Amino acid sequence: MPLRLFLRFPPVPLKEYYENLCMKAVNQSIGRAIRHAGDFSSILLVDERYAQPKIQEKLPSWIKDRLTHPPKFPLVKRHLATFFKAH
Length: 87
What we know:
The chain is mainly α. The chain has helices at residues 3-8, 14-33, 53-56, 61-64, 73-86. It contains 5 helices and no strands.
């Protein structure tokens, strides 16, 4: 790799590289669910890692600002029902 490219794009640790690659796929999936301003969708990120600020920072702000973290699944069902009744 030429030095100028190396200085412009310094290597990242392998774990962070794979994390970024996965988050790119997650963000693309989210974008496929909601294409236009009038669209609505529920996106369930069912993994404890999405509660970590480091991971949340890699989500688009319009998703990050709307994240909820219900502690139990019955609350998830309630949130979904409320969301879809409103739309």
